[in-house]
Design a protein that fits this description.
Blueprint (H helix, E strand, L loop, with lengths): L2 E7 L6 H15 L3 E6 L18 H4 L8 H10 L2 E7 L7 H18 L6 E8 L6 H14 L3 E9 L3 H21 L6
Parallel strand pairs: 1-2, 1-3, 3-4, 4-5
Helix pairs in contact: 1-6
Bound molecules: flavin mononucleotide (FMN).
Length: 189
């Protein structure tokens, strides 16, 4: 049974992002995956202080000096078979909250630990405004994953105008992703 961490960010517990996450998780569970949900906005996460001369302990021993929930979440991701990254679209990017986590993760993992290298991920950007910036948000997520050597199996834009058909499809996406992790499908690029 594959373990999937669903990492999501939006301040709204019942908005578009939460609906996308719920649908995707339904599919994961239907396929029998072990699911850990992490709502980043509910966790204590500070932003990187760029300590030292820009590089702190992150590129020396792969840890961050700030004592908050970062290390626990990092451990969960390291132990997962798959990671779903789901963010509301803010300013054509991931939320500030997800970005703060992402920045610290990348410093520790890409330079020293490489614990996330080759993780098989799926990306979702949820835009409730015009929908502009959804693709840029997915690109930003994928760029960061690439720095850490992770792979994206799919990149899914969820917008106000496609939610009627996209939300039902996300349940199938979750089921399909969980099965794909089980069968060992491996995409290299
Ligand atoms: C600071 C901020 C920036 C935003 N930027 C965008 C944007 O670039 N494009 C867009 O379509 N919507 C944008 N929105 C709208 C959000 O995507 C919208 O709040 C969406 O519903 C997020 O999902 P939620 O329902 O989970 O909050 C922005 C919202 C906020 C608060």
């Amino acid at each position: 049974m594959s373990k999937v961490v669903v990492l999501w960010s939006s301040p709204n517990a019942d908005g578009l992002t939460a609906s996308a996450k719920d649908q995707f998780m339904k599919g994961l569970k239907r396929a029998g995956a072990e699911v850990e949900e992490i709502h980043l906005n509910k966790r204590k996460l500070e932003h990187c202080k760029a300590c030292g001369n820009g590089w702190g302990t992150c590129n020396k021993n792969g840890t961050c000096l700030i004592k908050d929930d970062f290390a626990d979440i990092y451990k969960s991701l390291s132990e997962a078979d798959g990671i779903a990254w789901i963010s509301a679209v803010y300013w054509s990017d991931m939320t500030e909250c997800m970005k703060a986590f992402f920045d610290r993760l990348r410093r520790c993992d890409a330079t020293v630990n490489h614990a996330l290298a080759e993780k098989r991920c799926i990306l979702m950007a949820c835009a409730g405004g015009t929908g502009r910036g959804t693709l840029e948000c997915l690109m930003q997520l994928e760029r960061g994953l690439t720095h850490m050597g992770m792979r994206a199996y799919d990149r899914i834009p969820v917008v106000r105008y496609n939610k009627e058909y996209m939300l039902p499809a996300l349940e199938t996406a979750g089921e399909n992703y969980a099965k794909t992790l089980e069968t060992g499908f491996n995409m290299y690029y």
